[in-house]
Amino acid sequence: MHYLTRTLLLCWLPVLGFTQGAPNLPIPPQGFDAKQTGTPAGAVALISYPTKDHGQQKARVYTPPGYSKDKLYPTLYLLHGIGGDENEWYTQGAPHIILDNLLAKGAVVPMVVVLPNGKMTGNDDFARFANFEVVLLKELIPYIEQNFAVAKDRDHRALAGLSMGGGQSLNFGLGNIDVFAYVGGFSSAPNTIPAGTTVKDPEAAKRDMKFIFISCGDADGLLNNSKTYHDWLTSKSIPHMYQVEPGEGHNFTVWKRSLYNFSQRIFKDAATGTVPRNPNAQRARFRRPMGSFTLDGRSFAPK
Predict the structure, then answer these.
(1) Residues facing residue 50 across a β-bridge
(2) What are the helix (H) ranges across 184-251?
(3) Is 62 helix (H, G, I), strand (E, B) or coil?
């Protein structure tokens, strides 16, 4: 029995993001990120996997309530910010609780969520985050697909993240559209490569990407990264959702809401089972920002 038979029951949710300039989504209901009495809970395991150039690396892996090796689940790779690691989302963002609550309402497809350490070794923070691309594509994804009951095609892979992880998600996800069908950038940081550089073939992105989500608080000093990306996608008529959270800065209020909204709009039309192409194709080249900036209370100047 394949989990995809259940997706037909979930298609009621409108995918509002496949328009440009969609209106803001409402604030999630109170308690969406809090444990609810009687709600079945998934499991979160801490794993360690080998890499060629960066030693043993860690990740947390959420499996939904009722997880069974007899089914195949889609996978969301969820990335952290500049000061985080595999623990940041888990300890501050409550993704397992948010998804448990949504699953109990039938609002999301059951999925495996991987919370990796996304900062490898390197000369500076931009290099450390950029170096995770090869690890993600060549080492972490194969490890997850070998050790968990997950589907192995692009239609069943999503990539999203906050801040530096949001930049990674746009860079890696839209730079490898043969690997990921769903991409979310939450309050993306200055490591975000210009969309025109990352998206090599706008027509292919328009045709093949199932959902692109960009979000940020309107009081966030990094808002321009998201707005510029949104403007470029709009100029190329590439369907996406642009969500601005009123009165919010660079914080987990935005990122929890973003996960809540993103997760309900992924994997709902993944009934075709597309075979992925070469995962090394369309890799983007990373560029550092030209000027200094402040992120999470720390000042940075590119070297």
Answers:
(1) 56
(2) 195-198, 202-208, 223-235
(3) strand
Residue 142 maps to a domain? yes
The single residue listed with the structure tokens 């992120």 is: 295
Could you tell me the residue range of the domain that residue 256 belongs to? 43-268
226 lies in a domain? yes
Q: How far apart are CA 33 and CA 7, in angstroms?
A: 24
- What span, in angstroms and rounded, lies between the C-alpha atoms of 30 and 28? 7
Single pTM value for the model: 0.84
Query: Is residue 299 included in any domain, yes or no?
Result: no
List strands edge to edge, sheet with 43-50: 43-50, 56-63, 112-116, 75-79, 157-162, 182-186, 211-217, 241-245
For residue 303, being part of any structural domain is answered with no
Distance of CA 260 to the CA centre of its chain: 12
* DSSP symbol at 236: T
State the total domains in the chain.
1
Q: Is 145 exposed, middle or buried (0-12, 13-18, 19+ CB in 10 A)?
A: middle
Residue 108 sits at φ, ψ, to 5 deg, of -135, 160
Q: Is 194 exposed, middle or buried (0-12, 13-18, 19+ CB in 10 A)?
A: middle
pLDDT in tens for each of the 303 residues of the chain? 344 333 333 333 333 334 444 548 999 999 999 999 999 999 999 999 999 999 999 999 999 999 999 999 999 999 999 999 999 999 999 999 999 999 999 999 999 999 999 999 999 999 999 999 999 999 999 999 999 999 999 999 999 999 999 999 999 999 999 999 999 999 999 999 999 999 999 999 999 999 999 999 999 999 999 999 999 999 999 999 999 999 999 999 999 999 999 999 999 974 422 223 233 233 332 333 334 444 545 444 433
Which of 238, 265, 243 is CA-nearest to residue 255?
243
CATH number at residue 76: 3.40.50.1820
